[in-house]
Amino acid sequence: MGCGHSNYGGARRHIDGLISIDIPVPRGTIDSRQRDITRTVLLVASDNGKLTQQREFSFSGLFRNYALQLRSNFGDGLIQQSGTRNVAGGEAMCIQRIRPGLAIMSGVDLRLAAWISTKWTPKA
Hints:
This protein has one domain (35-122). The chain has strands at 35-50, 55-73, 78-99, 102-122. It contains no helices and four strands. With 124 residues, the chain is mostly beta strands. Strands 1-2-3-4 form a four-stranded antiparallel β-sheet, with no helix packed on it.
């Protein structure tokens, strides 16, 4: 879910947590403790080949890890959100040729995705 609001210097009303851009504020309007850090790791492997003249194989696999850490101040104090997500998947396939124009194909395809942890905490 997302939301948004903007405030420009000419606004005549007061909105908590927002400061007009043309009003000087000691130490600025940005909390220096805010930060946004993301990291992603991706590992992929794939191979195919022929076992015999009539039999072929193919396989591939992947692993992805995504992590984020956000510290934001919307006017009510610093809050922190962090989370990690892992995705793993793979496939394996075998083709057996019976005769020219006829083959049997079998295989498996798998994908797993999971949020490992998600936190939303107020910070002092």
